[in-house]
Amino acid sequence: MLIAVALLCCACGGSTSSALDFGYPLDATLRLNHAQLKGTHNSYHQRPTPLYVNDYDYSHAPLDVQLQSQGVRQLELDVHWLPDDARFAVYHLPALDPLSSCHWLTDCLGLVRAWSDAHRGHFPIFIFIEPKDDVDNASMAIAPHLDALDAEVRSVFPTRLFTPDALRGAHASVQAALAADGWPTLGAVRGDVLFVLLDTERAPGKPMYEYTHGLTNLDGRAMFTLGEATDPFVAVLSLEDPINDGPATAAAIHQGLIVRTLVDDGHGAQITGTAERDAALAGDASIISSDYPVPGLVPGYSVELPDGTPVRCHPLAAPSACTDDALEGPTHLEPRNPR
């Protein structure tokens, strides 16, 4: 029954936030792609003991702490299908890097939902879900269980889930909708959550191929997915080199896409320079993901947006009237007409 209700809600767009007044002055003008925000890579990750690989030498705060205290508005969760339990667990790799701040996917999402419920005026949260079955045994393959993955997402977010169908509307494809109407206004999606399947493998039997019904569409799906900028179902890209992907990022932003970049993946605690971070902060990506979102995690390094805001006006996409406080401000997180 819960899944049936969730599907009905998502078919209607999934959002109830537009019925509330949070006092943001530009919610009818600013759109989802008018912001640049900070995210975390492997947001669940805890430093393994013993540490076998230096790249894994970092730990994240619990997901709700990242949202509350670290200004994070994009999270990433790696999922594994556990056939004996018939559900998804969250961790990086078996044996070498198995520790997580929240074990089950639904528990991780429950932390996000509880924080969102308590701060309904927040800027929409992006959650990237990466299928991690390339090192698992065959019984743990994720592609046959994508409907179950959607069901787990919808079990925690039966409402306030912004889906590809909600963006597509009556248009033939997601990209046709972006070309004709653009992303929704913040007033329509404030307090919502948007999921992205973090996979790019285009071969039959792989999660992204199967999730997009053979690289055709995302009809009925709970999540967006990566792909190529020309794919009709793509609205979000991950261009992970902030130094060399600058031209491709700018082109995708002009196309209306949302672009994520990654600034320090693979460095572990051995940060030797700030070139990637500085390029990302000076560049055009919509989402800047890091393992070090606040000072104090490693000496002399962190990734912080100017002025410490959770989000800021996008340097390329935002209109001149945009202000950071109009995207998300601490005085506007609670509705004026609570229900």
What would you say this structure looks like, in words?
The protein is α/β, with parallel strands linked by helices. It has helices at 2-11, 63-69, 105-118, 146-156, 164-168, 174-181, 186-189, 207-211, 246-254, 275-282, 324-327, and strands at residues 35-40, 72-82, 87-90, 125-131, 193-197, 224-225, 236-238, 258-262, 287-290, 311-313. Strands 1, 2, 3, 4, 5, 6, 7, 8, 9 and 10 form a ten-stranded mixed sheet that branches. It is globular, with a radius of gyration of 19 Å.
- Name the helicity range: 25-40%
The major β-sheet equals: 10 strands, mixed
Q: Termini separation (Å)? A: 25 Å
User: What is the helix tally?
Assistant: 11
Please indicate the percent range of residues in DSSP E strands (runs of 2 or more): 5-15%
Mean pLDDT: 92
Q: Oligomerization state of this entry?
A: single chain
Provide the gyration radius in Å. 19 Å
- List segments where confidence is low: pLDDT < 50 over at least 5 consecutive residues: 1-18
Silhouette: globular
Class by helix and strand content? alpha/beta
- Helices and strands, in order, run as HEHEEHEHHHHEHEEHEHEEH
Number of strands: 10
Layout of helices and strands, plus pairs?
Blueprint: H1 2-11, E1 35-40, H2 63-69, E2 72-82, E3 87-90, H3 105-118, E4 125-131, H4 146-156, H5 164-168, H6 174-181, H7 186-189, E5 193-197, H8 207-211, E6 224-225, E7 236-238, H9 246-254, E8 258-262, H10 275-282, E9 287-290, E10 311-313, H11 324-327
Parallel strand pairs: 1-2, 1-9, 2-4, 4-5, 5-6, 7-8, 8-9
Antiparallel strand pairs: 1-10, 2-3
Helix pairs in contact: 2-3, 3-4
